[in-house]
Amino acid sequence: MSSMPKVKREKILKSETLFKGKNLNLHRLTVELPSGKLFEDEIIERPSEVAIIPQISRNEIILTKQFRRGVGEILLELPSGKVKRGETILTAARRELEEETKYKAKKLEKLTETLVAPSWSTSKCTFFLARELIVDSHPRPHDPDENIEVVRLTFKKALAKVASGKIKDTKTVLGLLLAKRFFA
Amino acid sequence: MSSMPKVKREKILKSETLFKGKNLNLHRLTVELPSGKLFEDEIIERPSEVAIIPQISRNEIILTKQFRRGVGEILLELPSGKVKRGETILTAARRELEEETKYKAKKLEKLTETLVAPSWSTSKCTFFLARELIVDSHPRPHDPDENIEVVRLTFKKALAKVASGKIKDTKTVLGLLLAKRFFA
Questions:
Q1: Region of A175 on the Ramachandran plot (φ > 0 left; ψ -120 to 50 alpha; else beta)
Q2: Interface mutation vs chain B, best among A44, A74, A80, A82, most B CBs within 10 Å
Q3: What pTM was estimated for this model as a whole?
Q4: How large is the ipTM?
Q5: Which of A15, A86, B46, B113 has the most CB within a 10 Å radius?
Q6: By C-alpha distance, which of A76, A89, A101, A120 is closest to B118?
Q7: What is the domain partition of chain A in residue ranges?
Q8: Separation of alpha carbons A15 and A29, rounded Å
Q9: Phi, psi dihedral angles at B167 (to 5 degrees)
């Protein structure tokens, strides 16, 4: 009851898996609140993710357009994807960049790692700046189920699309702001 | 098979609710890919959220510390929360600011709205800059289950904590970068 209460850790008493899916698992946690009361909450387990900021020239970036099932819209985004089992996050970033854009990066620099929605998900995302891009001369054979469009635009134009609300994917807005200092 | 394929919308054929929880619902979508093939995927439905950047002086901000169940850690974050049924996002921002920090804002300005994880969730977050803060003279009675700490720090210090990885909650990193221009 002090005027400046201190936050306390909750004790996690139980974690029960309610659903295992292709891309996420659902768990129900039972926690003990600092008051001693028990409380149940749902959390979503997701694989770690990578997002790549591909700098194609001093003042230009590569983005992708994809249909996003969570919101039912086509969005303009940074290349990104899940880290597969056995991959390092660096390997995943390299693979996702190549798969989604058909470019390889000679330089791939980690910028930062963030928690996507820590109150209800385990999801993490690591951001990489990709530079010295070269066209992949041996791209994988075309996958008929691939549904992605590669867009090259000035960094300035990308920032304008953030300001106007045309770019609204969180990782993309954040990645652009994090990489701003690298662009002319 | 053109060298510059265009992205296409997927047709959502079916949406089946697998779980209804306190804070999220889980749906299984069946979609038709552009190739005609059917594909199943899981998505998480969440209420909209608000995040507030409380500017307490020209160069200081209010943050909160909370235990976050998704990652099992105490995190330093912007005040934030879910929009309740029947509330506008502005009302929710006002309520969350007051509940979490005990401050009221004379000015509450919408900065932007983003999609939290659009490939697998409906979740949206709207950012507000809160200014002309005054201490709430009639705060709600103390809730023994409330587990939150209010922290006042310079904006510069908050940015240093982003750079050092001490602040790693996505909405907080993004909100600070979005509001940078308002601070001395």
A1: alpha
A2: A44
A3: 0.95
A4: 0.95
A5: B46
A6: A76
A7: 11-45, 49-182
A8: 5
A9: -100, 120
Tell me the per-residue pLDDT of A70-122, one tens digit each, with 9 for 90 and over.
999 999 999 999 999 999 999 999 999 999 999 999 999 999 999 999 999 99
Residue B22 CB contacts under 8 Å (≥ 6 apart), including other chains: A40, A41, A42
Helix, strand, coil percent content, chain A, rounded in steps of 5: 20, 45, 35
On the 0-12 / 13-18 / 19+ scale of CB atoms within 10 A, B177 is: middle
Burial of B88 (0-12, 13-18, 19+ CB in 10 A): exposed
* CB-nearest partner of B170 from A12, A73, A174: A174
Residues 77-106 of B with CB under 8 A from A: none
Closest CA to B102 of B139, B71, B54: B139
- CATH 3.90.79.10 is the classification of domain B49-182: yes
What is the rounded distance in angstroms from the CA atom of residue B45 to the CA atom of residue A157? 32
Question: Measured between alpha carbons, how far is B173 from A178 in angstroms, rounded to an integer?
Answer: 9
- Cβ atoms of B82 and B39 within 8 Å: the answer is no
Which of B23, B24, B118 is nearest residue A70 as measured by Cβ atoms? B118
